[in-house]
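Possible regression after last week's pipeline update?

I re-ran a chain I had predicted before the update to compare outputs. Posting the input and the new output here so someone can diff against the archived version. Not blocking, just want to make sure nothing changed silently.
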Amino acid sequence: MINTELNHYIELTTWIRELSSPKIDNTESAEEYRINLIRSFNHIGELAKVNQNILDEYFYPLMHKTSLNEEEIQLLRDFSEHLLDATSMENIDLPMHFMQSQKLLEDAEKKQDDALIILSLDNIVMASYAMLMTSLRLYPCFDICFKYRDKGLEAAERIISYLEPEKFKKLDRYCKESVLINSRYISAMFEWGEDIDFEERTHKDMAMMERSLSLATDPFYREEAPDYDWDYHVFRTLQYITCFTEYRNQIHFNKELLKKILSYTYQFIEFLNKTTPYMIEECTQETQDLYLCRNRFLAEEITLEEYKEALRELFSRRQMHNYSSYILYTNFTVPYEYILVLDKENLQEEDKEVLRNFYNEMIGYIFHMPKIGVLSFMLTFLAYILRNYVEVDGAPTLEEMCLSLMAALHPPTFVHTLSVAEFVACLTKHLIKRRPDLFVGTCGIQNEEEVYEKRRELIEFARHSAFLHDTGKLFIIETIITYGRKLLPSEFDLIKAHPEVGADLLEQFPSTKIYADAAKGHHKWFNNLNGYPMSFDMDTNPNKVFISLLTVADCLDASTDSIGRNYKQGKSLDYYLFELNEGYGTRYAPYVVDLLKEEEIYKEISDLLEYERDENYRKTYALLKEL
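New output (post-update):
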């Protein structure tokens, strides 16, 4: 019965993800699209109640048991396999997987059962790596990811300690295979971060992989694990070494090690061409060519221009209708590697054309991409691309790109963004009339007379701040669409990072830098005592008035809409005004709350709620149809 219920949780969670971003293929109008979204989120609400009940009745009681029996252990292992795909690192519910992995390890350690300990540690490694990949997108909030890296590294080191011959001989077949796999997989836990000594890491990483490679020719291990796929072990280990230089060697291998990596790259390709077809399917010809040209360039075997030409040729072979993880890898990595070697101050027309083609195709590619199977994998590449974005004529600006990606990945959040922009423009317009003094010192304005002269510019500044305020959510879409249950503390950590993550991205570009404060501060309270991030100082920020307006507009839309906001029923405007008054002078700026008490402004906001939101769904539908 429990097994059936937990399997049902998997089915419902998958269904909920699909409902959160419904397809528009057979939708004939914007009104039909809006109605479908409302139906979808009403349905999500019903399914979520079932899911939460399953967790409360069957899953959480297991988490609180002091000891698990064999049937319960097997049940959790079966559930775990469905929550996270060990091959693609794609997850159905990663935080739940991480939680139960820790529970299984605690239980195994109490029983002092080496086999259970190894299998539980293996789960911890996989869950930690997947969580690490999610949180590494959240630059500069590295503290979120380090704990997962450290837990995964500790677990992997404990597993490979069983390589000691006397320990290894005592293990069963499956545990031996887990130990051998982790001897190479431990490299994945050495992801970069500000606290890493790169020179120490690179030498240690290479030494670990060479040790893992040597196991394949060691008579002892070959004899002890005769059924282990040793060819696949060599394939993966050589591939890990070959991939050390991803993202233009950002972990800083020196020249000597780069030449060694190139030597292993040649060895890898030679080995691959002599092996079985299923390995070649996991490393396409395009991927092999990418590995080789990148490592030849970094080892100074070919010039920069030769490398760029090789990347352009690979880009011409892209498969923009294939969503397998292997094809997705090259579809994103080839142009990203190209971006990294560009002289951004002296772009050639050929470079600009490559960027235009890639940016325009990328939006459509992501829109058509399935939301289950490769979403987390893709988001890692997307984060790297946006952080190194190059704005060129004829291609989307960073703001346009972020808005289009939001529409492609999660239309409800895109509609929210458009609505907040309308609300904040309305509030800004009226506040300028009543309190021009509040805008003196913003946008270079010196006095109240200048406020009136530049009121249109101020309104547009507020509007574009709203367009970009949730940019950081692009990196945590799979958390945003977790509608099937209550969010866990680890997920709130990710969500609370989005203001800093978005602001950090916006600060890197001249076209968006002026909006970074709004993105960073829109969840900080007016009194500067609550909200997040705590490091953001509302009192001294020159854009405090815009942030205060944005905070009210953001909460106004979130409170009154039912679509995409955790499937809850939207509140009335009057009820929201009651909440505003409760936060008067603490969470919300008094001068913004006072605006909404005026009959003229109340009516204008009411009209926007009734008519403009529908218009925003029409705009979203039109954009999605274009994509």
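Follow-up from reviewer: compared with the archived run. The mean pLDDT is 88. Marking as no regression found.
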